[in-house]
Design a protein that fits this description.
The chain is 73% helix and 0% strand. By secondary structure, the protein is an all-alpha fold. It has a single domain, classed as TerB-like (Orthogonal Bundle), CATH 1.10.3680.10. The radius of gyration is 16 Å and the shape is globular.
Length: 161
């Protein structure tokens, strides 16, 4: 039993040093969480993918293959995930409170990228905000700011199924 636990811990350390899966890279966690929001309504639209690329480019200053690699790593990590814990724990470990609040704003930007926001997207953003310690007030303020950035005049136009 002790050997299994020891091997498990060694595998985690080896993966982290290897850098291939980048399990402790907060950037991969951020992209994976974006994919969780994009997938929440059952459709990943081209506009959501385009917005993700723009946001990651602006956020991390990546272009070309570096950006492609980050997005691919985040997409793969997100598709393999059974819950948000792996990503939210990385985010909590690497980002301060203001950065976590800005992350929620970024997730709202993704939710509004296709011109509509579903109840499922709301739920995913709410759960992520709770897990990373962002207050309900800050979550709502970030949603309102994202709505303005999306240039949607009235939230009644948003699909809240």
């Amino acid at each position: 039993m002790f050997e299994k636990i020891s091997r498990f811990l060694q595998d985690i350390t080896t993966d982290a040093e290897d850098g291939n899966d980048r399990p402790n890279d907060a950037r991969v966690a951020v992209v994976a969480l974006c994919y969780q929001v994009m997938e929440a309504d059952g459709v990943i639209s081209e506009s959501e993918q385009k917005r993700l690329r723009e946001l990651m480019e602006n956020q991390y200053g990546l272009r070309g293959s570096g950006l492609d690699d980050l997005i691919a790593a985040g997409e793969e990590a997100g598709s393999e995930a059974v819950d948000f814990y792996r990503f939210t724990s990385d985010v909590k470990r690497h980002l301060d409170e203001d950065q976590r609040i800005k992350l929620i704003g970024l997730l709202w930007d993704i939710a509004y990228a296709d011109g509509s926001r579903s109840e499922m997207e709301d739920n995913v953003v709410w759960r992520i905000a709770e897990l990373i310690g962002v207050s309900g007030r800050d979550r709502v303020l970030e949603r309102q700011d994202a709505l303005k950035r999306a240039s949607i005049s009235d939230e009644k136009d948003i699909n809240t199924q």
